[in-house]
Amino acid sequence: MKSRDKIAILAVTTRRVWALTTPFFSSEQKWKARALLAAIVMLNLAAVYMLVMINDWNRLFYDALEKRDQTVFWSQLLRFTWLAFAYILIAVYKFYLTQLLEMRWRAWMTAHYLRRWLSHQAFYRIELARYATSNGTPDNPDQRIQEDLNLFTGYSISLSMGLLNALVTLASFVGILWGLSGGFSFSLGGQAYEIAGFMVWAAVAYCVCGTIITHYIGKPQIALNFQQQRYEADFRHHMVRVREYSEAIALDKGEPVERAHLNQRFMSLLGNYLRLIKAQKNLIWFTNFFGQAAVVFPFIVAAPRFFAGAIQLGELMQIASAFSRVQDSLAWFVDNYSTLAAWRATTDRLTSFEDNLRTQAQAERPEVRAGGNELSTHELSLGLPDGSLLLSGLTLKVKPGDSVLVKGPSGSGKSTLFRAFAGIWPFAHGRVEIPADTMCVPQNPYFPEGKLRDALAYPEPASRYSEEALQQALEYALLPQLAQRLDDEDAWGQKLSGGERQRLALARVFLKQPAWVLADEATSALDTQAENTLYQRMLEMVRAKGGALLSIGHRPSLQAFHQTQWELHKLPEQSGAAYRLQPG
User: Which three-class secondary structure state does DSSP give residue 183?
Assistant: First the structure.
């Protein structure tokens, strides 16, 4: 890769990281955030100042030892006591305020991304796109919000403060080391040369070599960390699915298959983790050698001056201490490479998630107008995630008092048409007009875990409805056995049978009394008698409210409750669209 391309990639990466980092410090919490950040910076500066003071204490203390001066020895021990106490106090509050900033930053970013993920059905559209294509669509958004944001805020603060600390330490100690190190004289080609501040240049050369070697040894960790987070999330996600579909898996006796799938995911996780461990082992070999060599390196370089009597023991120890601080500062990249690799992987996952959320927010959508007194479409075309055209040129109308049944073979687009009416199908063009007082009833309804009253009133708060209204809705939906269990807490989506779930979804309809109802196979799990009773009650409700009923279903028994039928017919492959809707 050319240097120009690398610079361009670095510039783009920097802008994307900046776009992730700055919103919190420009948000409604900006003053608290900036104050915390400023306090942490000041404490870091104070910690470096204390290290400078301790470095000076080293010289005086070891000189007192060499001279056997008890008065200076005990006074320096007393001085060290308050220096150590001050340093401990700074370290404690630096840790506390850093953790507080991380917590506030994570809380803000989590709320920010949850709001965007749950806006404009982005969570639904991302899943549709992910199953349609494997390119450019983020996997496991839940893991990116829950884990990656936590890692990003923690790594960003620790690395940035560590870098600041390294730069300030370098600026503070490089002058000290320069003044203590003296010059280095040598002859070359008959000419005498002297290098001023030799210890500083030795530290720079030592750390530059170490940084270059560390980068080439540790570079594979970036991609491996990215993959590791993905494999961990996939493994956890599949276990959640086993829990959610536990009954169906148990009935199918699918435990061996699920175990095989989980083992496969876990082996992928372990395989990548083993590669990551090996990459980290190679880096640790070098970083430990680098760190241990740095302990004796300043003594080796300064020893000739000490044995020549040019410096005393205290100065030698001060040189070693100053060199260690300068070397630690210059070796910040070496010491933090594994953390940087993990931070880079986390940042890449979040920036791709950010890009996808922005794409979903800017994506073209069908024009959906809520209001009016009829349901209609104008030149509506429906596609699939893979780009193929399902239905085209639909101009439909449902008026108050109508009852329409949509029929057709499986896969013909009935549910897709239902989603387009609801305004959530992203692969659509045209215009949809839908009355404001419309309620959709899916075939597989969702119920939150918790109290039954909350599952019944979802997504509205149960406090909006009286006890009598909640109980009456359950009885009207043929669930009298649940009427006295409104305060029971359970996983209702798994606790209830398929038919009970569908009746509970219809109980929501009877509770909220919408004028318009769109029902997608809403009674497919019910017996004929229960289906007839509930459809009769829905028809009476929508007609009393001046609305209409539009249903999707296969059963011939549903025809008795609908005045009009729309049927989907398959078209020849060369016709463009896959199906044609024929209103009856």
Answer: strand
More confident residue, 447 or 6: 447
Structure tokens at 198: 């030799």
Identify the bridge partners of residue 581 per DSSP, sorted by sequence position.
Answer: 568
pLDDT surpassing 60 at residue 42 = yes
Instruction: Quote the CA–CA distance of 444 and 415 in Å, as a whole number.
Output: 12
Task: For residue 310, give Cα distances in angstroms to 181, 200, 313, 315.
Answer: 11, 18, 10, 10
Structure tokens at 379: 């030149």
SS3 category, 542: helix
How many angstroms separate the CA atoms of 196 and 202, rounded?
Answer: 11
> Residue 258 in contact with residue 239, Cβ under 8 Å?
no
Q: Which pTM value belongs to this model?
A: 0.72
Write down the CATH superfamily of domain 3-362: ABC transporter type 1, transmembrane domain (1.20.1560.10)
Q: How far apart are the first and last CA of the chain?
A: 63
Per-residue b or e along 467-505, where b marks 16 or more CB atoms closer than 10 Å to that residue's CB: eebbbbbbebbbbeebbeebeeeeebbeebeebbbbbbb
Q: Could you tell me where in the chain the CATH 3.40.50.300 domains are found?
A: 367-583
Fold of 367-583: Rossmann fold (3.40.50)
Distance CA 365, CA 359 (A): 12
* Span(s) in the chain for CATH 1.20.1560.10: 3-362
Q: Which residues pair with 526 in a beta bridge?
A: none
Three-state SS annotation for 357-372: HHHHHHCCCCEEEECC
Confidence of residue 55 (pLDDT cuts 50, 70, 90): confident
Which residues are CB-neighbours of 260 under 8 A, at least 6 positions away?
A: none
H-helix or E-strand spanning residue 392: strand 389-394
* CB 323 within 8 Å of CB 300: no
- Cβ 394 vs Cβ 380: under 8 Å: yes
Query: Residue 360's closest CA among 81, 15, 122, 14?
Result: 122
Nearest to 209 by CA among 338, 334, 339: 334
Q: Where are the alpha helices (DSSP H) in 308-428?
A: 313-330, 332-335, 337-362, 414-422
Q: Per-residue pLDDT for 1 more than 60? A: no
Task: Tell which wins on pLDDT, 6 or 375.
Answer: 375
Say how far apart CA 495 and CA 491 lie, in whole Å.
6
Per-residue model confidence (pLDDT) at position 435 = 92
The residue type at 472: Q
User: What kind and span of H or E run contains 117?
Assistant: helix 70-117
Report long-range pairs for 387-390 (Cβ below 8 Å, ≥24 apart).
Answer: 388/578, 389/576, 389/577, 389/578, 390/416, 390/577, 390/578, 390/579
Rg (CA), the chain: 35
User: How many CB atoms are located within 10 Å of the residue 261 CB?
Assistant: 15
pLDDT tens column, 447-466? 888 999 999 999 999 999 99
Q: Are 518 and 542 in contact (CB under 8 A)?
A: no
Strands (E), 7-60: none
Q: How far is CA 311 from CA 182, 204, 253, 316, 420, in A?
A: 10, 23, 81, 7, 84
Q: Give start and end residues of each alpha helix (H) in 182-219.
A: 198-218
> pLDDT band at residue 223, thresholds of 50, 70 and 90?
confident
